[in-house]
Amino acid sequence: MAPRKNFRNQAKKEVKPAAVVNKNGVKVEASVAASSGGFSGTKIFTWFMVLALLGVWSSVAVVWFDLVDYDNVIAERAKEFRFNFSEVLQGKLSAYDADGDGDFDVEDAKVLLGLKERPVSVSLREAKEESAVKEPDDSRDDATHPYEDENDAIDTKGELVEKAQPQQTLEESKQYNNQPGSPETKETVQLRYNAEAESVPEPEADVEPEVESVPEPEADVEPEVEADVEPEVESVPELEAKFVPELKENAEDHPKDQLKEKAKKKKPKLLNKFEKTIKTEIDAAEKLRKKGKVEEAVRAFETLVLQYPQSPRCRYGKALAEDGLAEKMLSNDMLQKAIGTYKEASELPNATPDLIKATLKKRAERQQFLGRMRGALATLEKLVQIFPEDMALKNDLGVAHLLIGDNNSAKRVYEEVLATAPSDGFAKVHYGFILKSENKIAESIPFLRDGLESGDPGTDDGRFYFHLGDALQRMGDDSAYKWYERGHQRGHFASVWQRSLYNVDGLKAQPWWTPKDTGYMDLVKTLERNWRIIRDEAQSVMDKTTGLFVPEEENLREKGEWGQFTLWQQGKKAGESCRSVPKTCGLLERYPEATGCKRGQIKFSVMQPGTHVWPHTGPTNCRLRMHLGLVIPKTGCKIRCTNDTRAWEEGKVLIFDDSFEHEVWQDADSYRLIFIVDVWHPELTQYQRQTLSPI
């Protein structure tokens, strides 16, 4: 057998190979001839250089002839890239391998530019990576204006203008107002329908209010939209005297699962047949808006509207972009322009029903935000005419009537809803709310209770827990406290006793206070030292013919007569009242904790024999209330705050927190006269005192 060749040794030998003659008769070395039949290192290197040069020149050709805009591709991709972009500039382009072939080339660029379909395998791979690393979602919900939840209006110059808050206690106002409030904590005025979440931050802290909103449909993917969530009304079974029923489990105790079942998602159809052919252009403009580039989005949609003036979706996109720009500019003028564009979009031919509904609902929301309540009412009436079977829209219409104080029309709307949908919890709580405002206490209870027990969206609201409990209390039903407890558990009340709805979190909470507790010792001493001067001036204006003492109109009395004469209200003097009692006002001028208390009052209060004031709470925990006794009968007059009952004394100051439940009896033989001075809660900062909205 021939010996095996040792290639390692052979490689070490420097032996010149024998020359051979090729077929052309030319002598070449044997190694070269052999290479024609196999691959040597030299040939591999040669081919490598050829391929490299081809790659280089093809890249040069692509760039020279502008076949692919690599800069744009990389820049766009870098926006979505999770890693440091400097790594990309250093040549780590594997993240841009869009077609899955392991490198970044012309084909990848085509995929990224949308000129070629992305391979399914790559899409699946990216889906897995996306699920593994979730990017934070900074996008805002577009369906609700971001500053709708703030108790601020915006003027045409873009400066915030604070809206005045209601001036009543929780039971007293009969006006319905559901305009969102300024960020502070939660508060709610009794019969006034005003669900505000307040919290006044210190200037250093940037606090964004939470905004409830409906997801904005995107142009390219017709999104799923949740069913409209609207303020809801509760209902209650017929009330039996002294019967305390077991409370049913509220569906809203499990909002993530049960409420999702009630508000099933559906995909709105916003594009008509023609608009599907220009979907790519709409998507491009919509993408700008979604990324917060509102100025560019406005220009893009304006261009589309010029190109396709009969496209409702283009016009709707323009309105949304203008809406976003209004938020950025804080401009009422721009918001008014958006309102007009919404109207234009809804009136174009070939608008889909879903687009008409979305557009007009947006228009109504913005009109309400700007305080154009009657305009919003007209828009909602049009919506109900177009979609008469949509109970949610009718519920919105009922709220619109309440917002302009037209309770009778609202009542008719909710009666229509309940005739068609007798289990509609939203309609029930609002119908019960209206009945209670009409002082139909017993009749209101079943609707409020049933509506709350329904767990329907919008019924889990502190106002409805408050009014149901209050109605039950007035009927002598102790189950009121079970509803107050539920309201507390749901986060609407600070406690069963402290049920104010316009609060600042973290303030010391106790029903009764001493002068030392408040830190307002000087004010207390001034009142007590000068109580006779204050009493004499009060008695001088008590004559009924002067009309200075007006009856209490807050629906707080079960019986009797109760009059008041106000000197300061919401931190301002009440008209010319101080002219009648100049000495009293002069004593108070140097106490800004009282005269500057925007959430309180300074007033005389006279109560005649046989008067009983229902248990009630004030609207806010931001104040304390001082009572200076002026004329106090020896027996028969008392005040209860929580479970502690006390009596007034002439020349002495009682201090309590009226956000806790309190009740008054006047069973004496003669009138009782006191001087009421509200002061800021001592733990509020100076900044909070300046920025809190008035009540």
Secondary structure layout:
Layout: H1 7-12, E1 19-21, E2 27-29, H2 30-35, H3 41-64, H4 70-80, H5 85-89, H6 106-112, H7 120-132, E3 152-154, E4 160-162, E5 185-188, E6 195-198, H8 258-262, H9 279-290, H10 294-307, H11 312-329, H12 332-347, H13 353-369, H14 373-386, H15 391-403, H16 407-420, H17 425-437, H18 441-454, H19 462-474, H20 480-489, E7 512-513, H21 515-518, H22 521-529, H23 531-540, E8 550-551, E9 557-559, E10 562-569, E11 572-573, H24 582-588, H25 592-595, E12 601-607, E13 611-616, E14 623-631, E15 637-641, E16 644-646, E17 653-656, E18 662-666, E19 672-680, H26 686-691
Antiparallel strand pairs: 1-2, 3-4, 5-6, 7-17, 8-10, 9-13, 10-11, 10-12, 12-19, 13-18, 14-17, 14-19, 15-16, 15-18
Helix pairs in contact: 9-10, 9-11, 10-11, 11-12, 12-13, 13-14, 14-15, 15-16, 16-17, 17-18, 18-19, 19-20
Can you tell me about this structure?
- With 695 residues, the protein is of the alpha+beta class.
- Helix content is 41%, strand content 12%.
- The strands form five sheets. Strands 7, 8, 10, 11, 12, 14, 17 and 19 form an eight-stranded antiparallel sheet that branches.
- Helix 14 runs antiparallel to helix 15 and helix 18 packs antiparallel against helix 19.
- The chain starts with 6 loop residues before the first helix and ends with a helix.
- Mean pLDDT is 76; it is low at 1-37, 73-98, 118-175 and 178-257.
List keywords for this structure.
695 residues, eight-stranded antiparallel beta sheet, elongated, single chain, five-stranded antiparallel beta sheet, 12% strand, 41% helix, disordered N terminus, alpha+beta, 19 strands
